[in-house]
Predict the structure.
Amino acid sequence: MEDIVVRINSIHGNQMAAKINGKFILNDDQFRFRAIAFGRIGGHNVGVKISKRTEKILEKLGYDIGIVIEKLQRQLIEGNIELPEGLKLESFAD
């Protein structure tokens, strides 16, 4: 599977917990996602949610939904993301 490009549209919250809205690009196709990110106790965690419609499209394109979500979560946890102008990674991540 190709790498996933993650573009953040908005982040609300702080270093303890944040709600994230964004898009991910996979093989020139763009999809929306929502996530919640938690830090501190137990390490960093990100829960990603995509719509049922997006799941169906991804399946039709031959992708395994579990693997796509896992890669998307990894990109978010590792900070491999594109941020909107004016938002800095340091403002919400340790």
Summary: The two ends are 29 Å apart (CA to CA).
